[in-house]
Structures are given as structure tokens and as C-alpha cells.
Amino acid sequence: MREGHEGTGPGAITPDGCAVELYSRLPVGDEPDIIAAAVPAGAHILELGSGVGRVTHALLERGFTVTAVDESAEMLGRVRGARTICTPIEGLALDEKFDVVMLASFLVHAGDAEVRRGLLRTCVRHVAEGGCVLIQREGLDYHTNVPRERADPSGFTVRIVSAEPAGDGVDSVRAEYDFPDASWTQTFRSRPLTRQQFESALEEAGLEVQTYLTPDGIWVRAVPAA
Question: Within 10 A of 117 (CB to CB), how many other CB atoms are there?
């Protein structure tokens, strides 16, 4: 298990504390619609951190080609219809480039700043000329509006129980997921980033924000810096 990360509940748990069975149950939200509106129809998308394919499958249904990358073989075993590559994102070095590189699931908030740099370098390394990088950020109050909970219409409850300082500007975040027949927890390290800090991190990697795709600033389209 990665330092500062842990998970509990039925089934396989990945090194960052994610439960494979849990993520297989979570419904897809509005991510596919946001992505589809931001990129060319039929684009080839490199999805970094695809997990079980929750978003992958929705993108395939919309006519995109997806290469799904994840470090967990158990996660990728749930992906259907996409090319899959099992490797840590930071080490990915394919001899090809993509119309769209996607870094979702708040991965840009990695507690280890060097891991974040590696993730962003992978994005830059694989985006084609004229292409873009889509990044999902945490909401403005992600670390401060705690505890909070949401009852999902599909029948489960998710809670962000706490976000406690863990040193060096990083928080230890604990989440709980309750279903009628099972429960899971996940504890992970996350680094809050102001918009300025986020844009500085992109600039360091050779990217610049082209536009914030959603009013809350959570979804961002970035391009290689001129």
C-alpha cells in the first residue's frame, strides 16, 4: 500500500486505497458529457488512471477511441472495449501521441509533488500537436467543507469524513461509501491547490490553461505552452 493510503471493504484494494468492487458500482456522472463537449468528435483519448472504466465505457459509447492506463491489473480487468495498458502513469512512454490526454479523478492533487510532476510530464509527452489535455481538479471547498455526505439516487451514500493536515501542505482525506449490502472506506493523501498554484504546476510542466470548462473550475482544458 502506498504511504498514507489505505482502503477497507470487500474485494481487491489497489495501492492507493481504491476498492475495485466499489468503483465497479459507482455510476458515471456528467464527466462524459463535459469531455465530449470539449474535444473533437471521434478523438483518440489517452485516459490516465482509468480505473474500472466507469468513464471509459461512456466515452466509447459516444464514438471515441480510448487507450486506458492504470497501475492496477484488477481495475483494468473490468474495462471492456478499450485498449488497456497496466503501468504507473508517471513511467508511461508510448511511441505515439493522442488527440486528447485525460488526467481525471483529481490525480493532479497527488500528495507527492514529484508524482504530480511525473503525471503532468506524461501528459505533455503524449499529447499530439494541436491536441489538448483535460484535467479534473478538486472543488474549491473540497478540503474545507467537511464532514459532508451525499445520498446518491442509485442507492448508496458517500461521505467525506475528514481532511486532516499531514504535513508539507498535504491533507489526509478519509471517505466512506455505504451500500445496502456492503461498505468501503478510502484514506488518501491530497494536496490542495489554489488556481494560481495549479496553473504554476502546469506551467512548470510546459502546459498552459486554455479554458476552464465548467463554472466551478473543476474541469480544465490545457495545451502545450507556446
Answer: 15
Locate all alpha helices (DSSP H) within the chain, ordered by sequence. Answer: 20-25, 31-38, 54-61, 73-76, 113-126, 195-205
Residue type, 157: T
Look-up of cell digits 497527488? 110
Beta bridge partners of 170: 167
Band of residue 201 on the pLDDT scale cut at 50, 70, 90 = very high
CA 143/CA 191 separation, integer angstroms: 9
pTM of the model: 0.97
DSSP-assigned letter for residue 225: -
Q: What is the mean pLDDT of residues 141-151?
A: 97
Sorting pLDDT into bands at 50, 70 and 90, what band is 107? very high
Class of domain 23-140+193-224: alpha beta
Q: Where are the domains of the chain?
A: 23-140+193-224
Residue type, 119: L
